[in-house]
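Dear support,

I submitted the protein below through the web form. The confirmation email said the job was done, but the results page showed an empty box. After a refresh the structure appeared. I'm attaching both so you can tell me whether what I see now is the final result or a partial one.
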Amino acid sequence: MPVCRPLGQGLWEVRSNLSGNRIARVIFCISQGRMVLLHGFVKKTQRIPNQDLVLARRRMKEIEQ
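What the results page shows now:
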């Protein structure tokens, strides 16, 4: 899987491997030509938890206002 991939609706994900076989994710968007980091977390399942996507989308709407 690529290090960076689109999640849809303007959101992107950056993957990062941590020590101890942990996997971190940072969700970001591009706003006014800048990368804005919206949410970061350590993954515990294969899928991104819905609550993390909801939080990132809410923060993206806040910066667009």
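Response: this is the final, complete result; the empty box was a page-load delay. The mean pLDDT is 93.
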